Amino acid sequence: MRLIYILLVTIFSFSNFQAQTQPWKGKFEPIDNLLAPPNNYRTASGAPGRDYWLQRANYKIKATIDEKNNVLTGEETITYFNNSPDDLNYVWMQLEQNVNKKGNEDFGSINNNIKDSITTRQMQFLTRAINFPAGYAINYVKDGDGNNLKTMVNNTMMKVKLNSVLKSGESTTISISWSYPITDRSMFLLSREGYEYFPEDDNTVYLIAHWFPRMAVYNDTEGWQNQQFQKLGEFALEFGDYEVEITVPEDHIVASTGMLLNEASVLTKTQQKRFAEAKKSFDKPVLIITKEEAEVNEKQKATKLKTWKFNASNVRDFAFASSRKFIWDAQAVKLPTNTVMAMSFYPKEGLPVWEEESTKAVMHALEVYSEATFDYPYPVAISVNTSNIGMEFPMISFNGGRPKNGKISDGAKAGMIGTIIHEVGHNWFPMIVNSDERKWMWMDEGLNTFLHQRTVAERYPNFNSVTPKSIVPFMSGDTNILRPIMTTSDNELFNQFGANFYLKPTVGLQMLRNSIIGKELFDEAFKEYANRWKYKHPNPSDLFRTLEDATATDLDWFIRGWFFTTEKVDMELSNVKWFKVFEENSNIEDQNKSSKIKVAVNEKSANAEAKDFRDGPEVITMADTPDAAYGQFLSRMDDKEVRKQLTGKNIYEISVKNVGGLVMPISIEWIFTDGSSEIDTLPAEVWRRNEYEIKHTFIKEKEVSKVNLDPNFEFADTNMMNNGFPKTETKSEFDSFKEKKKGN
Known about the structure:
The chain is α+β, with helices and mostly antiparallel strands. Strands 4-7-2-1-13-17-15 form a seven-stranded mixed sheet. Helix 6 (353-372) crosses helix 7 (410-425) and helix 11 crosses helix 12 (540-549). The longest helix has 20 residues, at 2-21. The model is unreliable at 1-23, 585-607, 730-734 and 740-744 (pLDDT under 50).
């Protein structure tokens, strides 16, 4: 014993020396070095700290659309609250419209490849062959006393130098007058706003977003978030209250963030009556403006103007849509703590599918997301139909999907409904759980897609939805160009950002929920994260720490592999050994006469690697345990009872290799010779001592004919051909599935 003790101390000391001189970077080591350390603002549990703070910006805005010239003009007064511990002598504001200006470095750089055959629209994206005006004209920037403020514009960011230092705990007022040409959305790739022109009736649908100079985020982790807008990475914004007046042609209908304040001034008596009915209609939408009425509006072309007034509380942004083409329907949705108006605005080109499905999809999103996180807190949730887009803002989203000549395929319909659910879902992530889209796209797109897919699976079970199978083609790709999820938004390859920022985080969360943590515990942790960080600015570390804190589960191995690397899952079932216990020198029926047991004999060497079960079980002997093996223990195990428990049982030792690099739980399907089956699951922790290969022993009453790894495709295994035993050259079920999908 003393010798063993000395040996253990020596090994420990040497291991400790190695750890100090050459830090081990194993898959199960803590990820503390990958995350910002906790502090008074963000705790080690993942919750906001006792000193957490965030800035606030309230807006009063008046804006007018000049339909003849497609120009928006506006004036705003911003009250900015400095809740940080720092004194500020300047502030940064976002000017996203400048991304559309001629000469902007990012006009055509998102997907800038020329092919032998290219469409004129693709060439326009690349070259701006047809030029057009774009970008802000800033008329003035003044302080609360009317004095001019010095500004410096750097592309899509404007630095405003304050006339006096804005001290911690104080507020300041900034007034701005501006205008910009509203751009034609058909001219842009990744167009999130602008106008859509309808030549048939000479009308326009305006989608007005990131349309006013807005305060950039100032926070505890990086100070000013003043990264340039480069189209792919979206927005980082502060919360505030809005009072907005929107002046448009008299026959336009406006859909907007916020509550409509002057209903009597902008709606007819009939429209007001229908809107009142909609507020009490919980089973179906009420048409507030019908197709026939919209068609009459299309022909009017009013020259007089009308002002719509809205207010919105505790939102991070404000957007609206305006057109005389809109059909409008609305329905009340009852949530546990409040009632929300789900509404849709669409031109006649969206019929009949938008009238049938849009508001219903909004309702489903409101119900499922509220159950999974917290009740939707705002009074309205709006879906606006337009072309080639899915874009979210507080209380309103712009969504593509239209029939052709009144008809739509099942796939296109499912895509339209999915888009609406997804964009409405963004009200939670990032409109309320306010992550930094410009830096971490996956934190809003991935988490939102996860709940979007849950909504589809629960409310539209016949639709295809994302599963771990969905990410396999991406993770099987060229590792030289793959990038981790933890890549900032604008640094991802254009043709991969969908898979890396939307699908891979979604699949990761699905695996945590369904196969690693468990639904009940995961759902509680996910809800905890949402409630901890609603109306705040979470970072990735806050999510990771909350999931561990609220589940008592060590997820460092999963977070490290899935989020910080480009490794893939490829587990190989390299061998299965079969042993069966019988008494020596006896028949199976008479098994209690011998003190020695061995396995039924076969002619194959125990060292040879089997490819199937045809040679029968392998030979082993099981002798009594010698006294020396017990060391200083005086009690003894009952050798006979051990033999009795194992007699006639089938013992299987499986060997699994980690070929792809990512460790995962191991799901093993046993198919027995009588046709029945069962599944065992080993936790990921079985890889702790050897990250490259594990062996594990199972006892089965029945004889096994076949063994499969990951039979239900829970862990995104990229090569199912090496997951079976007996080993076969036959195509796996998963490869057949991929070929069938490709053929369709």
